[in-house]
């Protein structure tokens, strides 16, 4: 995880060319018309969250060394789950024996205000293939979808963004969900929404740490590659309160999709989007091989799809529903998948945060059959084989895609990190393939220098856009609001 310090911060430096003062404001808006709502926790004893300075209190530096090993094969999935009843009073800590451990006394450097330096040895693996690869069950029957015309429509005007504000801190200490006390989630990122059933949303998170959490980035112990929460909270004006998280022990959020956690083999598996069809939940994810030192980049093994038939408690990575990263240039490594009408639309970019957006679609009953996908190319839906050369629907650079269909307005909406603008931006279109409008900035690195993410809440309305934002210096997730005119 340490390399993400270079990859994520570098993405913003690459786009902005500089980082602004560490004393950036906690609430930001080009228009100050709306009073900010502080993201305090649910209890009077909780302090108001403060964004971390760009000058870290602790700096963990990876010391990489080469290692020869054998690919261990698929990691063992953690299938243990428990049902955890939380106290009705949110201010009661359900597990003080786990989360209220005494803090270590401050070191001399901390007393002097000097960042603590931790050297972290980390193997960079060169692996021989697994000599006993597991047997893979037969895949779905191949199909041959037709080529169908799909011209673009006229572009909409770019959304007019105003009254942008930070609503609440959703994760970590002093958040509206007290995730540090309830689920041992001290630091995490992303916050990817989808409607898991009527009246409920699922929220997926990326790399997560518990004890000894020390930002910037996901540094600490109890590393989990991904987590999942659920919420029925419709009052978004003061945050998103979680009903529960998938847990595998007392006050401990469970890792859903295991990863090998071996650098240059598979360092982690991170969700990129999710959706539900009937009683089945789907999650797109990326298998990351390594975090690169080049700003804004990482290298994936593949982008894949996992599914759950017990409402998110256990997940299966489909062995056939994946898009391999051929020579590091393949599209659909980072995907945002959206069901609409008879199809599921898949927007995708190559590994990194610097690529252009491509588009594919698949019938809802064939989501796990890669031969059933049609890729948008040259004003037509074309059959499989075009995932490398699919036409661009949104120009580079784009990272952390989030796409939804606003049924009330019959408009498509896309949010992502634009590293050239060093900002989260939003676009709109009257058709999935565009032409997409010009982008409008929602949150800028001038306000939060180390921002990323931008995942739209599905219960946003036409004028009220709610979305999550992660910040590297805090390494936690915040709910943001913007008014679209």
Key attributes of the depicted protein:
485 residues, mainly beta, four-stranded antiparallel beta sheet, 26 strands, disordered N terminus
Describe the structure.
With 485 residues, the protein is mostly beta strands. A hairpin with a 2-residue loop joins β9 (247-249) and β10 (252-253). The model is unreliable at 2-39 (pLDDT under 50). The chain contains 4 helices and 26 strands. It has helices at 4-16, 96-99, 108-111, 179-182, and strands at residues 58-70, 116-128, 148-149, 161-169, 190-197, 200-205, 227-231, 244-245, 247-249, 252-253, 268-277, 280-291, 298-308, 316-324, 334-340, 343-349, 355-363, 374-376, 380-382, 394-406, 411-418, 423-429, 440-444, 451-456, 464-471, 476-484.
């Amino acid at each position: 995880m340490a390399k993400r310090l270079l990859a994520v911060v570098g993405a913003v430096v690459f786009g902005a060319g500089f980082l602004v003062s560490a004393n950036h404001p906690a609430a930001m808006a080009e228009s100050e018309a709306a009073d900010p709502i502080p993201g305090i926790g649910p209890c009077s004893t909780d302090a108001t969250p403060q964004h971390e300075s760009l000058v870290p209190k602790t700096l963990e530096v990876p010391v990489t060394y080469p290692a020869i090993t054998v690919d261990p094969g698929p990691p063992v999935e953690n299938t243990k789950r428990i049902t955890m009843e939380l106290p009705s009073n949110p201010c009661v800590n359900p597990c003080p024996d786990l989360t209220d451990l005494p803090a270590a006394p401050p070191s001399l450097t901390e007393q002097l205000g000097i960042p603590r330096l931790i050297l972290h040895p980390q193997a960079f693996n060169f692996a021989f293939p697994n000599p006993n690869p597991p047997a893979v069950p037969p895949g779905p029957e191949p199909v041959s979808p037709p080529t169908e015309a799909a011209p673009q429509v006229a572009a909409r005007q770019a959304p007019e963004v105003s009254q942008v504000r930070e609503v609440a801190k959703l994760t970590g200490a002093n958040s509206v969900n007290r995730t540090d006390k309830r689920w041992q989630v001290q630091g995490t990122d992303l916050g990817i929404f989808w409607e898991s059933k009527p009246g409920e949303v699922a929220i997926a998170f990326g790399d997560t740490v518990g004890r000894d959490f020390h930002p910037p980035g996901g540094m600490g112990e109890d590393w989990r590659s991904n987590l999942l929460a659920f919420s029925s909270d419709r009052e978004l004006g003061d945050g998103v309160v979680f009903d529960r998280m998938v847990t595998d022990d007392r006050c401990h959020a469970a890792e859903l999709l295991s990863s090998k956690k071996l650098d240059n083999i598979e360092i982690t598996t991170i969700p990129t989007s999710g959706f539900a069809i009937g009683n089945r939940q789907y999650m797109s994810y990326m298998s990351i091989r390594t975090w690169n030192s080049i700003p804004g980049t990482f290298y994936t093994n593949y982008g894949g799809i996992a599914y759950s038939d017990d409402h998110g408690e256990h997940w299966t990575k489909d062995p056939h529903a994946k898009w391999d990263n051929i020579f590091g240039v393949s599209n659909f490594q980072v995907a945002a998948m959206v069901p609409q009408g008879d199809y599921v639309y898949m927007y995708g970019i190559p590994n990194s945060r610097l690529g252009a957006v491509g588009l594919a679609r698949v019938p809802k009953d064939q989501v796990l059959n890669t031969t059933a996908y049609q890729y948008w190319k040259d004003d037509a839906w074309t059959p499989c084989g075009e995932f490398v050369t699919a036409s661009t629907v949104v120009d580079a650079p784009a990272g952390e895609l989030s796409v939804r269909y606003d049924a009330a307005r019959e408009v498509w909406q896309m949010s992502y990190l634009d590293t050239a603008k060093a900002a989260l931006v939003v676009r709109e279109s009257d058709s999935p393939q565009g032409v997409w409008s010009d982008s409008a900035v929602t949150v800028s690195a001038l306000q939060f220098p180390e921002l990323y993410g931008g995942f739209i809440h599905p219960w946003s309305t036409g004028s009220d856009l709610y979305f999550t934002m992660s910040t590297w210096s805090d390494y936690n997730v915040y709910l943001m609001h913007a008014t679209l005119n």
